[in-house]
């Protein structure tokens, strides 16, 4: 655990988290919407600081980033928790999880095999002589991973084509203290930092983090506020602000998961693309095919024809529109 950076103390031991637009009001003992920040004795703590659930050496195109160091690999790390609760979440087991009993300790070994082979989401293990401890939090298996160690691994795997660190798998904004500290160390080593994020972060922490970020893939879940409220428990306008601000500072690509009957109309995709074109026609848009998952396990996959129509609509405004998961 580590004391959170962005929060304010209130009366009677309560606190208000200022990291994301939820602005969670937390009485002592309570945890925020993200399930990763808790008020302990009137102080807000990051519960996921120094813990990781997954680590892999991935092709950068898997983030997906198609116009950022193509052909390279990037060390990808994630933890637990998320400040959205998307009904189709593909990483729901680490984003949401379930409460478990007391933590258990376990020895781990053999990190390098999963990394070199580039298995996405490879369970983190420890190759060092010094053993780590495995923990459970909300049903998620975790191991200790300090910023210095992750930055050191990134440098170590530069010989395998690694260009830096991607903070991904769960929502990196709620791993904020860890990401900020690690990103500074990674930059000092001449490597890059990438965020794969839902973009739902407050302005002040975003501004502090941006100087250390080289690229972002930002999910724009849909282009209506109603969709965000009903299916994500978030807000579109905050995400749009993040896209616009980030694009002035680093390379940005956008991903939209096209879900049948919810956000798949050519008109909506066209409006999304038209807005992105105000940032620049060369901004990259990825339209991904939906497959059943989590609470939407009975929804049919996105028809390929629907994706093709969405792509055609987006190409009226943007120069680079790619189809994913096809």
Name a few traits of the molecule.
single chain, 326 residues, alpha/beta, TIM Barrel, 8-stranded mixed β-sheet
Describe how the helices and strands are arranged.
Elements: E1 2-3, E2 7-9, E3 15-17, E4 25-26, E5 37-40, E6 43-46, E7 51-52, E8 54-59, E9 73-78, H1 92-95, H2 111-117, E10 134-137, E11 140-144, H3 147-156, E12 162-167, H4 176-188, E13 192-197, H5 203-209, E14 215-219, H6 225-232, H7 236-247, E15 251-258, H8 266-279, E16 284-289, H9 304-314, E17 320-324
Parallel strand pairs: 9-12, 12-13, 13-14, 14-15, 15-16, 16-17
Antiparallel strand pairs: 1-6, 2-3, 3-4, 5-6, 7-11, 8-9, 10-11
Can you put this structure into words, describing what you see?
There is one protein chain. The chain is α/β, with parallel strands linked by helices and about 325 residues long. It folds into 2 domains: about 1-45, no CATH class; about 50-325, Alpha-Beta Barrel (TIM Barrel). The chain is built from 9 helices and 17 strands. The strands form 4 sheets. An 8-stranded mixed sheet has the order 8-9-12-13-14-15-16-17. Strand 16, helix 9 (about 305-315) and strand 17 (about 320-325) form a beta-alpha-beta unit. Helix 3 (about 145-155) packs across helix 4 and helix 8 (about 265-280) runs parallel beside helix 9. The longest helix has 14 residues, at about 265-280. The protein starts with a strand and ends with a strand. About 50% of the residues are buried.
